[in-house]
């Protein structure tokens, strides 16, 4: 028999976190919420505007059949990450005033009585009532809960070079074990993997959500020796560690923690262009200083040399006192967003002319032009995004900015676009894109690339200026009969960087690199 558990409050599939009155309560989600158009914002921690049951399915706390969910209200955040999980696509959100987290409710089995009685016959015919105590109920096993507030994929690069030696290598392992324990890894919390840096990088543990597995693996790590090729290890992590086949989850911040004991043997600056992270480091001695070619190596791989992304410990004995601070830093995705670039932080919408003057063959050339630009971007649910609208007198949303969240998916979707064939109403199409493609809930800098081969039948300057007032930088790409005055009227200033023109469609092949370079200039200037 169960007692002492709060009765779940029945809610609907569309009940939002903001609709709940208690700071923490158990609610009952009905079945078949996947059939409703639920709105979910965030991953792990959800904006309170989200539907609770939709978020619970996304989190894996309940299935499509519904069930009880424990909801805990939290403070608001400056950013909420999108991800796809359990058939639910959550959306990103720049900020919200309050949040909530979800867990499965825990009931405690309690017995109504701890005693019972029986009658025993004694010699002489007397019956004696004997009280028998029931065996005490076993205490439920208390499992260590994952830190659901820390939604990161953490790769740790350990120093296994000859600089550190056997003894300090053992102290480094002890530090890492304590760090893993403090992080509270788990399926609903952070994941951790380990790479050793020596002559060559070596992946020891792929991303894992098991504390036991990680602690056992760390204890068994062999000391490698060799050079301190930390740059190679960073490059190895950036290029091949964070992959789905190695356990990486979509929609989670990727963090690289580099542990250094001494100075590296290779170039960190080049590796730092691929990956930015946190690191612990020891300063060289006065006798070692003349041997170092680049005495600023300590700042080459970090995101910003502002004290947040670099941490100094005089020795491995004192390093554990920094664990709490380190975990807090690594579990703050909004503070870690330092490696934002023009390739991984932009939303590019393409507005493509599908009028009869283009023709099917030239239309495929335009599609290839868009593919070339997309191939240069780092497209993901936490990176850059691409959307496409085709227009004639009407507009057709080919795919939105949240529809395809990988480079391969975008290219596949572009291949499926079919030529419309019709008239040319560019101004109306610009209004459509401004209102339907670019949404405030999608983070990143917005760019619109208009591709046309002729004169529009409607007014274009007003819609283009309105788009720019909404924070959208406009590029115009004209071909053949597109009037230069129209291209300049649509483009953002300075027009010499935002207007491209070719006499024929084959000339589009020369534009992708220059256009992306101009996007980067705009992004850098703004940031």
From TrEMBL:
SMART domains in alphabetical order: LCCL, VWA
Organism in which the protein naturally occurs: Merluccius polli
Name of the gene: COCH_1
Pfam families given in the database record: LCCL, VWA
GO cellular component, one term: extracellular region
All residue ranges annotated as the LCCL domain in the record: 7-100
Compartment list: Secreted
Alphabetic keyword roster: Disulfide bond, Glycoprotein, Repeat, Secreted, Signal
InterPro entries per the UniProt record, alphabetical: ECM_Assembly_Org, LCCL, LCCL_sf, VWF_A, vWFA_dom_sf
Protein name per the record: Cochlin
